[in-house]
Design a protein that fits this description.
With 407 residues, the chain is of the alpha+beta class. It contains 8 helices and 17 strands. Helix content is 25%, strand content 27%. The strands form 3 sheets. Strands 1, 2, 3, 4, 5, 6 and 7 form a 7-stranded antiparallel beta sheet that branches. It is globular and about 90 Å long.
Length: 407
Amino acid sequence: MRGAEEARALATFYQEIGRVGVVICGPARGLAKQAAGRLLRLSLLLLIIISLSYPPVATAQQISAYDGAAREIGASFDWYRYQGEWDSGPNNRDNCRVTAVAMAIQFSQNNVWVSIREIRDYLQHGGPTSIFDAQKDLSHWGIRYKGLDTIHDVLESVRRGHIVIVGMVMGDISEGPDYLVAYSDPGQRYDRYYSYSGGHAIVVKGVSADGQWLTVYDPNVWDGNGIYWYSDGTPKGKDRYYRTAEVATAMRHMGESPAALEILDVPPSLSPAVAETKSPSLAGGGSSQEQAPAQLKQSSDLTVWLSGGAGWRSVIFCFSVTNPGAQSLHLRNIGVVGWRPTGREFVVWQRNVIVHPGWNEYLALPLSINDPGKWLIKGIRYQVEDKWYELAADGHQQSIPFFVAQD
């Protein structure tokens, strides 16, 4: 506990004063005694304040004493959000906690989607946010919550079936096997995958049977950067595993009170299992892509724009779609899939696109690239509810190669 460390440091300070052996004589002696008494009282008050300023830290015994079964909180819909997505707005670098609130709203209100930017705008300030900002947003959107102070409280909340927003310092989380590795193996989904080590906010949604691991939704994911994505196109922040003891330390170092917020509302469709959303795959076709009956059509050729400078390159995939139906179509994801020169798959998409009847929706999807050679676009996929579909080309160019030159 940081408070105990500071207390020991203060005690050592007074021991050193005692060794100095300063002698005060004459009338000043009484004044010195009064000053020493005041200093002692102030020191005791300081020790009390220090001890109350930090929540208790879970010990190994407390974590191992967790007697709950493994619990994964899921729903019949996908409620993972990330701060680097298109709706985050100009404050996206500081929107981790706001994104956690967006997840809490969507989860607890049965898939009600609110843009991250709208939640941030309600705070009426830019820059980093606090636990009090999260409380303000949750209250505004009618989400019931309860403040928590310890990792034990977090474990018990998840055991009750409640997700928890946790503030933490990411430098206390160990680097994982896929640390700074682009498009890594989805099986390597534990510990920290990015270099940021400062204050952050996540959503805890699961706990292992022995209480040693937490399943989290980490919103620190960014479009167009492979460090934040697995090779199958899914975000690394979704269903990530962090060590309980490290999260406890990270909560303490964050220094907030309350340290976490238990979300008391749950959707009617709450399920004890994690709801997994299938991502588009090129291998073998699979059953995750179906030909949708006239739901969405491509309305312009897919074009590729390349740009770059010394040490960097990016590509933008541009195309438009139209909705021939009679009702608006809400696309959870729509994106371009293809092969890199190395033979690895790439996927780039945009989330939460609404295409109204008869409208042409123009899309521009950016991707950072670093592999010289021939790239091949295989097609365009989109997701409606939990199903993925092939976009009907409708006579427009879709599957094309393009080339990236060597530096």
